[in-house]
Amino acid sequence: MQPIEQISLGAIREAQRRTEGLALRTPLVRLNLEDAPAEIFLKLENLQPVGSFKIRGAASALGAAEDRDLIHGVYTASAGNMAQGLALAARERGVACTAVVPDHAPETKLAAIQRLGARIIKVSFEEWWQVIVNHTYPGLDGLFIHPVSDPAVMAGNATIGLEIAEDLPDVDAVLVPYGGGGLSCGIASALAALRPQVLVYACEVETAAPLAASWAAGKPVAIDYVTSFVDGIGGKSVLPEIWPLARRLLAGSLVVAPGEVASAIRLLLERNRVLAEGAGAAPVAAALAGKAGSGKVVCVVSGGNLDFTKLASILANRIP
Predict the structure, then answer these.
(1) Which of 45, 185, 202, 227 could form a Cys-Cys staple with 178, CB 3.0–4.6 A?
(2) What is the domain count for the chain?
């Protein structure tokens, strides 16, 4: 695959127009914690109609597609959130949607995908990852919307960066969950154009942190992926088409443990009444550990689609 180019400010503003009516402009609120190592703000993407930021990229990509490209519907590979976003956007446009999901996808997300009218194809994690890498799934003829490296998807994700720059012009650092890099590199593209002094960090969980490993090696490397309750981020490797952009735009990867993520989920509920899934709480865990330094730090709470059984374990001080 060809390396992805930095998303232009013009493309981001066009994506903002395409997503109007489906994606919300989410609030930016302060974390209610007096003794935090930084002034922490929360960008609440968990409040989107599908419970995550993915509606932005999905609405942008579908809005950019021609009718002739949608005759056989659309499909994506997703652990749950992108599939929900694409299902909603496809329903609004009246086209069929299929989601290829890994066999460990949470039931909460699977139920939501079906509720939104999409068909589910469940495969092994290895098969699912190959769809991400190859940009296709054998036997499906619809338009494939890549959940990470589709430029229109990334432009939709980047609208979060526009909103952060407008709502907190003197932000020092932005912490973003890293799954495949489409969210972090999208946001970083917007901030590079508007607030180039802002540091944008990827956040990973130590059970699946390919970006940190690749950063240390100076090139994309594969890792041993270990499944955890933090299901919305992590993979077996960094996508080659994303690596050059991530290396140029991001300040690095901040890695946290599953226990730190669980603690952040509890804290968000206790102090701000915010429900975050594991991926959405990872930036908060990193900020609370002081990994982004002091100053004004924005944590992108990417989603809130957490299984209630997992939430119950976390609230009981257990790691699911």
Answers:
(1) 202
(2) 2
